[in-house]
Design a protein that fits this description.
The complex is a heterodimer. By secondary structure, chain A is mostly helical. Chain A contains 15 helices and no strands. Chain A has a single domain, classed as ABC transporter involved in vitamin B12 uptake, BtuC (Orthogonal Bundle). Chain B has one domain: Rossmann fold (3-Layer(aba) Sandwich). Classes of the chains: A mainly alpha, B alpha/beta. Chains A and B meet through α10 and α11 of A and α2 and β8 of B.
Chain lengths: 357, 272
Amino acid sequence: MSSDAPTSAAAPEATPPGQQQDAQSGENQAVSVGRRVLRTFLYQRELTPIVITVLLFVYFTIKAGSTFTGTLSLSSAAGYAGPIGAIAVGMVFLLVLAEIDLSAGQVFLFCPWMMWWMHNDGLPLVIAIVIALIAAATVGAINGLITTRLNVPSFVTTLAMNFILYGIVLVESNDAEASPIPLSGQTSFIAKLMGSWRWAEILWVVAITIVLGVLLNRTRFGVRVISTGGNLTGAAEAGVPTRRVKVWCFVLCSFVAGLIGIVDAVKYGSLDPGNFGVDYILYAVGACVIGGTALTGGRGTVLGAFIGALLIGVLEDGLTLTGVSTNEFFIWVGVVIIIAMALNVQFDRIIARSRSR
Amino acid sequence: MSATPQPVEPPPVPVGTPALEVRDVTKSFGVLSVLRGINLTLNQGEVLGLVGDNGAGKSTLVKILSGFHQPDGGEILLAGERVSFSSVENARSHGIETVYQDLALIPQLPVYQNLFLGHEITRLGPMRFLDKRQMRKLARQYLDDINVHVPSVEAEAEQLSGGQRQAIAVARAVRATRKILLLDEPLAAMGARESRLIIDLVKDLATSDRVSIIVIDHNYAHLFELCDRINVMQGGRITIDQQVHQTSLEELTELMVSSYRRQIEEVQNAGA
């Protein structure tokens, strides 16, 4: 992408090769290389958070040594990053549409409850999981239909949906914890795949990131999502079924959150009805922003959202291990989010300003 | 052009049947009645110019013909057959393409994806993976063929000048049109060179005879060069219908003035 980038900064090749270059051209070369690097960061938004995550990783490794790089520590970082990442990579589609899904975190919690209830009612586990996933997708469809057909802002639709799902869990569970979750702690391949292996969840999220990344960047559906978010009228005039596209994105976001919700429940073995989904949402939107997605619509990166989640995971784990109070973690997350958003907005402005005549 | 899906050969239409006929079409937005009974005929292979003041209803008429708005009354005949368009997709499936006044480009998408918007080349069947390489190649070729210069087909539409964006929008429609092309002020905001380019593009398409074109524009010199016939819209109706080779700019202007005078007199008489 960067190699064909449109602005016409002088390329280093333009300077004649040879040893007799004077200091001037050497300087120019340095400047144009600098420009090139800047441009790469401008168009590859994921690069900045990747660099920061790597730097954090190196820092914590130096500071805490093998305590940080040990399996226990890394799997705990992955444990933070997994749920946030799962919700974030689906959320990117909605942010590209200039919409949001505040209920995805609650769907993440609700879906395993659905599986638990269905299984306790005597349904085979496979059927219970399928029904739970359909329920998650249905929640997304309802979010989408209310938003597009009744013109209720998605912020409000999904805020309400979040409370409704939270209420359903509280009512149906009678405030009692669900435990043990089927499959959890078991060592069969299926059980391990569904979450009882410590790395299963993060690998699911990696796989989903790849699939959704391809979906957004390499398919006609992705073009339709970007068009709808970038120029709603223009997309409709060009024949993009904008409402249908939006509804599908709500379904997608909900479905992914629900799927990883089940894996997460199997991983930890129990469900607490008191968990509130918005906690996850705030981190997930933070991860999207850190990854390079502005909330203005038309632009977003799935990979970036995942990297953003990793960054938050590494930060939380690293700060805990280096003995910093976990409370300080929140200050750092806040600082990182603001810096990331400021960069996103500035980068967008630079791109818009770099018009060629 | 090879990648555009080849249209199914239409059934033979009797010679002389207009490509498009609009009969008594009306449209109101709330209390504002924008179209008050439009009657218009577009013959096969013809270029029809549509002129009129701002607010005369030209854009509304175009948006009805392209399926974006639905008319309140009247009927539309396509090659003699009654049609009603439920959506832009629907009108497009009938072979109608449109370039709107408010450009339908997506600022964040690269030029080549804009050029193929709604007509993406895809692979692997139902997954609809984009064949980006093919689209880039064809886009480069096509833009070269029609002399549209952009810094790169990878450049985002946001980075183009207004004229370049308009050229891309027109090129997209011209490339995709099978039967009828609707152009709503295609030359607005264009430099002289780009105007010339668009005019040549449309003229070229018109000579092929398979396509009929409606152009809205304010520039009479352009319209006289481009069109076979000119219709004048005033107050939601078509008031003047002139063949270009049988009239002159002076005559047309005179007709418009006297038509206005007549309307004013009508209003005054009604008031008296």
